[in-house]
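User: Sequence in, structure out. Go.
Assistant: Echoing your sequence, followed by the structure tokens.
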Amino acid sequence: MARRAFRFPRNILCSSERKLPSNQCTFRTCRPYDIILIQQLHFPPRNLSFRAARYFGTSPSNKDKEEHEILGTCSDTSDPPILTWVDDYVPASLRPYARLARIDKPIGTWLLLWPCFWSTAIAAPQGCFPDPYLLGLFSTGAFVMRGAGCTINDMWDQDIDRQVHRTALRPLANGDLTQTKALGFLALQLSLGLGVLVSLPHTYYCFAWGASSLPLVVVYPLMKRYTNFPQVVLGLTFNWGAWMGWAATYGTMDYSIVAPLYGAGVTWTLVYDTIYANQDKKDDAALGLKSTALTFGQDVKRHKQILHFFAILTYGQLILAGYDVENLSMLPYTAGITAAYGHLIW
């Protein structure tokens, strides 16, 4: 479809409440996130289902892609410059921070949270639900620390992000925030994370385990520069909650249970993040960056075989973790793990 330039009068305001710089202005004269009001004028929401898909969907529809192609910023990736609830409800001055923390993309929080929930659930006494107080603390901590991880990642990768289509619109890469402002925001995020950590039971023991994860949080964004397996380091970082759930429940550590649970999380991360990394292969190769998507090669069949191998490792380690839990009913546990494994390979 041919791209068209749409013109609007001078008095239309952009999202940052700045007037368009000339009497007649095209979309291309404003940054993508500064054309929110203009986009809503030309592409008004068609119905409630469209708004829901726009806010919470992970894949843009064909119609959305057509609209973004008109804007000259169409993307098939997970970071398309589409409108979200942040643009409707967050004050303009805070939107760059909201985008820096990816609060409108909750999947990262879920990926950080699930290992905490697994460990807390498997540590619960037989016949009892996991402690809701712990689940609430872990939910808050996952939200805060996932945002902190995104901030650290973008601070390290500011120059690289500018050169990658999927990440070029991130707040540090496009100049909406400076490194100094991002550092101040990171200090706030880490302070909130510390508040959650010291609220856990068995505080000193949990603090020692929680603090031990900080080196991984800081260095994992750098690993794509130095190792062909940065997803392994990401897995070690994102699944640290497997240790925390057990530590918060008992104030001790049973390595025979938690170690295979943690290992299952790492191999699970290798599966999903290798799939995710495939969208950046061309950019990564051009910039000299590394990932398992590149390491596993271009042969699609071999690529899938490797991912299936890690999926099987995930399944086996989850079974092993449950096997070592005293008084755990293995039949429903194995059925649940098998269903999860079926979904993973699907």
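User: And one key feature?
Assistant: The longest helix spans residues 132-156.
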